[in-house]
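Re: weekly structure request thread

Next one in the queue (245 aa):
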Amino acid sequence: MSRIQSTTPESLTRPDGTPIRILAVDDEPTLTELLSMAMRYEGWQVSTAGSGQEAVRTAREVRPDAIVLDMMLPDFDGLEVMRRVRAEDASVPVIFLTAKDAVADRINGLTAGGDDYVTKPFSLEEVIARLRALLRRSGATTGRSESLLVVGDLTLDEDSHEVTRTGEQIQLTATEFELLRYLMRNPRRVLSKAQILDRVWNYDFGGQANVVELYISYLRKKIDANRAPMIHTMRGAGYVLRPTT
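Done, posted below.
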């Protein structure tokens, strides 16, 4: 583990000015303490849990803006924790902590709806950077005022993070929202998987480009379900969002 440098980016807060709330979940007390110190250095409010049951209970109590969640816990795994937490707060962002060689865990975490992952051992700076990016795109922090994006009968409010189609509200996770925002900012433009990875995830997934296909499928189930499709696959080229009229 490396120490946090003395120079840090601008402070992030919730839109109402109160501190960002993070839940760190790991059964290694030393690790959760290190994570807590790094996050408190950012001015964030941190809660910790050492088991799945404790994590679910704490999430219900504190309503975190993001969760840093170990895959392996003494009672049940991180995927089950996320499932239970998301049952009450569908949009809370989750960063999974996985073992260095546990490729299956990483893929399972993303497939289940996790927003990001960090492999152990990791630097504290990396975790903080990933959290900052995730908090910004989840709308949990204060940010610049943006206009309403409208493509056909689909609307996305970048301030309130509300998404509707034909007036019906659609609940998206933080990553799904960022992916849809990128598509809506580029209507009728074919976007390659590489472009989407770079814009939405901000780093190379090490060959896991199928995460784009995965999240496109998630969006289709929510945006295009029982409606005329707006998200189209251009074979060998990428994806494009087009209005239906």
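The first helix runs from residue 29 to 41. The chain has two domains: 21-138, 148-241.
Next request, please.
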